[in-house]
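Readers of this paper often ask what the protein records in our data store actually look like. The remainder of this section carries one protein's record, kept here as part of the documentation.

:::
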Amino acid sequence: MSQLAGRCSPILGGGPSVNGPRRAEIRPQSRRDLAHFRSSRLWRAMAFREPFKGTISAARDHWEKLFLDCSRRYTGNLSLFNKTPVRFFCSISSSGVQDNRFVRHTSEGETEPSSYTWPDNQRPRVCILGGGFGGLYTALRLESLVWPDDRKPQVLLVDQSDRFVFKPLLYELLSGEVDDWEIAPSFTDLLRNTSVQFVKDRVELLRPLDHLNRIEMREPGRSRSGGLVQLESGIIIEYDWLVLALGAEAKLDVVPGSAEYAFPFSTLEDARKVNSKLRMLERERFGKDSPPIRVAIVGCGYSGVELAATISERLEHRGIIQAISVETAICPNAPPGNREAAFRVLQSRKTQLFLGYFVSCIKEVSASENSVVMTRIGEEISIDAKNHQNKFILELQPAQRGLESQILEADIVLWTVGSKPLIPHLDPFDQSNIFSLNARGQAETDETLRVRGHPRIFAIGDSAALRDSSGKLLPATAQVAFQQADFAGWNLWAAINDRPLLPFRFQNLGEMMTLGRNDAAISPSFIEGLTLEGPVGHAGRKIAYLLRLPTDEHRVKVGISWLTKSVVDSVTSLQSTMTKRS
């Protein structure tokens, strides 16, 4: 294979010269097959637009002959060469630096990938990957800044979903306080009055070029490109500046059975699935003699506690909520006021807390098969055969001394522990552009939010590993992403306009958590020891998040909707009170 690589690399690195304004095409059997022959020089040719000289027919004949000769001599059993002979030819569409050049690679019957066409090749091109708090708010920040006429960047936002999700309000979907459109507006609606472009797609491959010789990149006639992004659909985006804000996804493959049977709760789709499952269980257990709905929540951080409080209020006496944590206290990193308020609410709603335990296994048990299940540790759990839905058994092992193993039964398991950042794959054929990642998989950044070794790439939110002045890693919260988006937008402005960049400094404004339809806890950082609880805390939290919604237009719509709902609820409550008295 080393000999094959040596013979093929001249082909993809430039090969015989080609004359004239032609278009380059590479046609292996599949897009994946092309990866065997990509080289760093090919990508650089794409970015720098290196000219080719010669004749098309000579280039094609020479490349096909050399390629097929290599395939016969060195490939053996490689599936790529056991199919119909691959036809290789290359060309470039050229007429100058302004040409939109890219490599096309397709197989028969496969749609050709294309390059994203920027409206103006003269103005800077900013590509933002991820439309969460970090990505969307960075785009809106760039739109709000004042730019010189020839320096205002073109901004492209890429996200796998067509909706922005205000995740701190997902719990209100379960309680029925909000509607989908209020906390998950479409990017089309949010960006309608801006110049920001949106593409719904997944990121497949990232090829940064800003780690190369910077003097070479600034030579006259050279492209100012910072790199290339390939999307899952095949679209290739050439950018000048890149923002990594892809967020994180739930890490479910932690213990046996967790990925198969547990529900995460971090996206709009997750919330909808959980809500649908709860509705189904509520319909099945509607009668007075029906068994209670058992809900197991793994994790007692903010997300786990807010879920426990919301679902326990929703189910009331029809449900049994079991919250499990390896820690000996709920919300161990929360301010004392929030932690104490949450503990009181959970106790008042008879939530069962299993503190100091970790889940070792989750198993599914069909009620129709056996009415009694023998677990691995020899204990018996009775299964109600009248219930047609399968049950789940959670085996708990003690994480603290003095505790004994436990077996829990549940109708639904919610998993709120652990997450993994969504950093895109880098071009595997160029090892010089690898990101520096921490143990969690986040990109290491400097204090200006730029990825180390890549001056054209910014990373924020869950994608970034940044420490505060004390050396502690900043938490992956919405509050941090809000503030980083503001700095990322400003530093992009400064970098494009050759101004000094600002170091990011996180300011903790306090912490908030929901505890039910009319209950919440707020601990503002500017008044030490103060905690707003109950209806006051609930109103303060809703107002704070209303002001944090992305655009003025959306804030007005949601504000009117919430006010209307509040009036209707107040009138309904008053009528119910008067009816009871009469």
User: Anything to note?
Assistant: The longest helix spans residues 552-581. Confidence is low (pLDDT under 50) at residues 1-110, 215-223, 369-388. The radius of gyration is 28 Å.
